[in-house]
Design a protein that fits this description.
Layout: E1 4-11, E2 17-20, H1 28-41, E3 50-54, E4 58-65, E5 68-75, H2 80-97, H3 100-105, H4 116-128, H5 135-147, E6 151-154, H6 158-162, H7 167-170, H8 187-216, H9 222-243, H10 249-266, H11 273-292
Parallel strand pairs: 3-6
Antiparallel strand pairs: 1-2, 1-5, 3-4, 4-5
Helix pairs in contact: 2-4, 2-5, 8-9, 8-11, 9-10, 9-11, 10-11
């Protein structure tokens, strides 16, 4: 029977297992395949983002992106397209559950063992589903595999048996482009970007003019110069956080917002209350837009 037998999530840089399905198969071929998977996980950085290690009865498929890689042991007659649909779904679920900081700080194997519940749920869904039930995602993955086919390995390869790579794979690089997709930019979000750019430009212009005067005449005005330049940098980073995904977005957003507030309060005298209120208001709007723009929801065809 063609099916997914085992799945796990590992860290790419060192092969540390982060989570895995807890079902057990005591078939000798399966246990041997698990050993090969463990060796392969430790050298994933040598390979492109997609790959398949074919065996007579069992195959290993892997999909890596950023810090993590999802791996699966399937029956050799299990559809390769369906296997990569499964891995992409698993990768999306893991990325939505854990940030890159916690992944990078993990120091022990199976630090996210509770994710096993999600692995089991997704695995059960794909073992029961057919290609026609997830047509849209099937077609997308099929097109991607035609354009960029997975690297082909053999389970019997020497490097998988000994944990060493040969010259044929030494020059292959790993792609580390994250697959996070943000929701669409809203009209209010565009307004916040425009206002943020305007505030940043005002801070930069005032800061440059004040710096020229301070360095020539008034050395005590350095604090005011810094208080103009810091909000300028905060505006730039707020624009970045709104447009692109970043780990610990909430913490970064609040730090930037309070920096703008403190610097503008410090500048009271050089700015009147209306100007301070305007800059803090724009920072508030930008922070709200950053916090409400989330990762794009997964496609329904791919869901569980």
């Amino acid at each position: 029977m063609s099916m997914i037998l085992f799945a796990c999530v590992v860290r790419v840089r060192d092969g540390l297992p982060l989570s895995a399905s807890t079902d057990f198969h005591f078939n000798q071929d399966f246990l041997e395949c698990r050993k090969r998977l463990k060796v392969l996980s430790s050298i994933l950085a040598q390979y492109p983002s997609r790959g398949t290690a074919k065996g007579r009865d069992l195959s290993i498929h892997f999909l890596s992106s950023g810090d993590i890689a999802c791996m699966a042991i399937c029956s050799s007659n299990y559809s390769t397209i369906m296997a990569f649909c499964f891995l992409e779904e698993l990768q999306w679920e893991f990325a939505a559950s854990y940030d890159t900081t916690s992944i990078g700080l993990a120091s022990r194997p199976y630090a996210f063992l509770e994710f096993d519940n999600i692995i089991q749920k997704v695995k059960c869904h794909f073992n029961c589903a057919s290609g026609s039930q997830m047509k849209a995602n099937w077609e997308k993955i099929e097109e991607e595999l035609k354009f960029r086919p997975p690297v082909q390995l053999k389970l019997e390869d020497t490097e998988l048996m000994n944990g060493m790579t040969n010259g044929g794979h030494a020059g292959v690089h790993v792609e580390v482009v994250p697959t996070y997709r943000m929701q669409r930019v809203t009209p209010l979000g565009i307004l916040s970007l425009v206002l943020n750019i305007m505030c940043g430009a005002l801070n930069l212009i005032r800061g440059v003019h004040l710096a020229e005067y301070s360095f020539q005449e008034d050395r005590e005005g350095i604090g005011n110069v810094i208080s103009f330049f810091l909000p300028f940098l905060a505006c730039v980073f707020q624009c970045y956080l709104y447009l692109f995904y970043s780990s610990a977005r909430k913490v970064k957003t609040f730090v930037l917002f309070f920096s703008v507030c403190l610097c503008n309060i410090y500048l009271y005298g050089l700015r009147n209350l209306w100007q301070i209120a305007f800059h803090i208001g724009v920072a508030s709007l930008s922070s709200y837009q950053i916090l409400t723009r989330q990762l794009m929801e997964k496609q329904p065809d791919c869901g569980v």
